[in-house]
Amino acid sequence: MAQRNGYPSDVTDEEWVFVAPYLALVREEAPQRQHSLRSVFNAVRYLVKTGCGWRYLPHDLPPWPAVYQQWARWRDNRCFEHLLADLRELARVLAGREAEPTAVILDSRTVQSTPESGARAGYDGAKRRKGSKVHVAVDTLGHLLAAVVTPANEPDRGQVAALCARVQQVTGQQVQVAYVDQGYTGEAAEYAAAVHAIDLQVIAKPEGQTGFVLLPRRWVVERSFGWAARFRRLARDYERLALTMQQFHFLAFVGLLLAKGVFQPTSP
């Protein structure tokens, strides 16, 4: 059998040493395991990066049913959320920050629906697009902390409570302030954040300014959306389940931090 050349999305040896413990839901030699976890992980990364369908995975990767079944286990156990949380802490410490943030930025992006996701899609009148909204919270370095997927017609302010609850859960109640745009104005959104001990601060455009404006603090989350857009599976909502779309975002940000090598020990 010819040796497999691999793909740019394949995990490196160093990355796999760090990642493997988070993904080993059963022992490596378990009798029901027919394919190595590393090859399955490579297949999922390939799918998210290239945007191909499950049935179109290359034949030098494990069969798509095996890959999907293992992905579903990882998804339902939120393995990539746990992995990203530790990678994010490492990245922050290496950047000279505290391990957990005290400030976050909230925002959403509307993703065009497809026939697979159309049953749960909504119409975003502002973007004039039918699809899903991915509501996120990122720290001031742009690292993902929380994500909620809703129909696109759901208002941003309606997800403040869910995002703030998750943010405080993953940071150990460390977040004190959340920066948002004018889509989050109103007493209801402010109260939803205050319930979780977070001060919601609206960063508004300068008076009289129209079109795109690079706003203080707020530009960080726009950059994060730009990072996510490089993963073609996230360019549109191809998923029947909102949970799959959500967890693919965590997997994408895991890949971004792995590529930075934040998990590698530094020389003394």
UniProtKB/TrEMBL annotation:
A Pfam family: DDE_Tnp_1
Record domain Transposase IS4-like: where: 100-253
GO MF entry, a single one: transposase activity
One GO term of the biological process aspect: DNA transposition
Insertion element IS402-like domain segment(s): 11-83
InterPro entries: IS402-like_dom, Transposase_11
NCBIfam families named in the record: transpos_IS5_3 (NF033580)
UniProt-recorded name of the protein: Transposase, IS4 family
